[in-house]
Amino acid sequence: MARERAGADTIDYEQVDSVIDTLREETSGRGPDACIDAVGMEAHGHGLQYADDRARQAAMLETDRPIVLREAIMACRNGGTVSVPGVYGGCLDKIPFGALMNTALTLKTGQTHVQRYLRPLFERIERGEIDPSFIVTHRLPLEDAPLGYEIFKNKQDGCIKVVLKP
User: Fold this and answer.
1) What is the pLDDT of residues 62-102, one digit of tens each?
2) CA angle, 70 then 46 then 88, to 5°
3) Strand partners, 107
4) Distance from C-alpha of 21 to C-alpha of 10, rounded to nearest angstrom
5) Which of 90, 138, 154, 155 could form a disulfide with 162 if both were Cys (CB 3.0 to 4.6 A apart)?
6) What is the span of the domain harbouring residue 78?
7) Do 102 and 71 lie in a common domain?
8) Quick check: pTM over 0.85?
């Protein structure tokens, strides 16, 4: 969707050996100017770090899976910015804080300020500057909310966004 709708370059972590190496190759070894962890505690991955995160969660030693945050910190260029709008709920393990400091990264965190941006976004939609309708893949009656959540959670039937109608 990001490639088709916004012209963004995308990387499927399941299709490459290393997201970090791929980003370095695409930026002539420099790394991206900015990296965004928009996933947070529900991140998925592969390899030993992800297996370790899952094992720590199962043993109640860690609450979140910070694999995307680690990769963002390690991939970002010197002096770049790592932005984390993704939600984290508790303790994170094995965050490469030395890399964050030694490469002089700026770390920005926090959930999106919905109240701040809601009115301006609605106004742009009303003026026809933005059309977010493409993201809605499922419309269900309110009483089907549990089904809608399951479809969304399990990414079934091409689900991206469910709109519930009262």
Assistant:
1) 777 788 899 999 999 999 999 998 888 887 888 899 999 99
2) 45
3) 82
4) 14
5) 138
6) 2-109
7) yes
8) no
